[in-house]
Fold this sequence. Notes:
The chain contains three helices and eleven strands. The chain is an alpha+beta fold. The chain has one domain: Lipocalin, CATH 2.40.128. Strands 1, 2, 3, 4, 5, 6, 7, 8, 9, 10 and 11 form an eleven-stranded antiparallel sheet that branches.
Amino acid sequence: MNYLRVLSTLCVVAAAACSGAPDSGSTPDVAPGSAATEPRTAFFASLKALCGQAFEGRVVENEPPSEAFVGKTLVMHVRECGDSVIRVPFHVGEDRSRTWVITTTATGLRLKHDHRHEDGKPDSVTQYGGDANVPGSSVTQEFPADAYTGALIPASATNIWTVEVDPGKSFAYALRREGTNRRFRVEFDLTRPVAIPPAPWE
Length: 202
């Protein structure tokens, strides 16, 4: 009788162990796309962590060659940081017309280029960019040109912009135009903050 009672107890224990129910020390499953697993969320947080700081950069790729950035001091300033919008003015020498705008959307992230004249009025070519249509990584996000960009600047319809934030190391902004040799990349050293530049034209 005692033998049968022990055997019965062992069967109950074995069934509980194999039932798949997590014990109190197990890690709960995280739903795909949640904040804990979404790389775009981590990317946005890394960029936001730089808020209020400015960094000097250098062009590392520029094909076909353009003189617009040669001999100019290049500074990016993470100037405005909200829960859903980060504005990063990009100063090229005395030219303060450019601001990169990264926004969270219902499906991910959006990059837009806000171009202004010195009096603050929008340039005729502004608000182009696109949405990150794949998760990317916590360090790198790619933004293919959207339909608005293709209509505004037909030559840029195949543009893909890349923004990289490697915390404590570097920030990079890059452009490639699919089907052509158009390439541009500027990198900023995050280990050496610089003086805050003047406000962008706005």
